[in-house]
Specification:
By secondary structure, the protein is an alpha+beta fold. It has helices spanning 6-12, 14-17, 21-25, 93-97, 99-110, 122-131, 141-146, 161-169, 176-195, 204-212, 227-233, 261-271, and strands at residues 35-43, 54-63, 69-73, 79-82, 86-89, 116-121, 135-139, 155-159, 216-217, 240-243, 246-251, 254-259.
Length: 275
């Protein structure tokens, strides 16, 4: 199973969620909850017949009153109970049981309600970045040295879709999965920054329509008149970012992540994912 842009991939699609800004500001449509929880998924699909494992799994939680944001990432190898399949790695829920059961699996694991999902795959992520004309990221030198697809780019650089994907898939260093998740989180911010550049605001409806062609989501397409208002209050700069804690071990020869349920519960409460 391949690991790739994960969080980043899927998270990048977060931009599409901007078109749903009205959901945050329209109290007549929003349910009584104070938070909107969006499940961001990045699938390593290489062919049309293989949906791929969701190697990027993140919950984006937005406070509809303040537009404060929090992110909770779930390591792809996390062992959970998957309805109809039993105990397995959480990233196997999507290819074996579908999107609806993937949502149910995450909801059961964290005991939260998922309002919407956004899903992007390997090819779609590259197209997503390219549709924006690239994204700007601070590329770590040791990754540049190890990844020829980056074409020697190091430090603050403009990356196209292929380069961004290669950067986000890298995990062959001491930080391993943790380093990759951090790069994914940085990519989320880079994509959102690109989307809401002042020079792009007038073209936002067009950009969002292009983005929707590269993602799968159950967020309804609606009017975009409030996107600018959304962009002025939405930021990941001060977002609270957490990763499900636990430890790695070998089970039947495979690397598996065993979550610390007590510490995970504390994080869910801290982030107010049930509010």
């Amino acid at each position: 199973m391949k690991n790739w842009l994960k969080l980043v991939v899927v998270i990048s699609i977060l931009l599409v969620a901007a078109s749903l800004s009205f959901l945050i500001f329209n109290s007549e449509i929003i349910k009584p909850s104070e938070k909107i929880n969006i499940l961001l998924l990045g699938a390593d699909a290489r062919t049309s017949s293989n949906p791929g494992f969701t190697d990027s799994i993140t919950i984006l939680s937005i406070d509809k009153n303040t537009t404060n944001v929090s992110l909770l990432s779930i390591p792809r190898d996390t062992v959970v109970e998957i309805p109809g399949r039993g105990e397995d790695k959480i990233n196997s829920a999507y290819p074996y049981t579908g999107i609806n059961n993937t949502i149910t699996t995450v909801e059961n694991f964290l005991d939260i309600k998922i309002d919407y999902y956004i899903l992007v795959d390997f090819t779609e992520f590259k197209e997503l970045v390219d549709s924006l004309g690239g994204i700007t990221m601070d590329v770590q030198p040791h990754v540049t040295a190890a990844v020829p697809e980056l074409n020697g780019k190091s430090g603050v650089s403009r990356l196209n879709g292929d380069e961004a994907l290669a950067y986000l898939r890298f995990r062959s260093d001491s930080a391993s999965e943790g380093g990759r998740i951090k790069r994914h989180q940085e990519a989320i911010d880079a994509i959102i920054t690109e989307i809401f550049k002042p020079s792009n605001l007038d073209n936002l409806p067009t950009i969002l329509n292009q983005l929707r062609q590269n993602v799968k989501t159950n967020i309804p397409l609606t009017e975009t008149t409030l996107i600018k208002k959304f962009s002025t209050g939405f930021s990941l700069e001060n977002a609270t970012i957490r990763v499900v804690p636990g430890y790695y071990t070998k089970i039947n020869g495979q690397n598996c992540f065993i979550p610390n349920k007590e510490e995970t519960e504390k994080i869910v409460v801290e982030l107010g994912l049930r509010n």
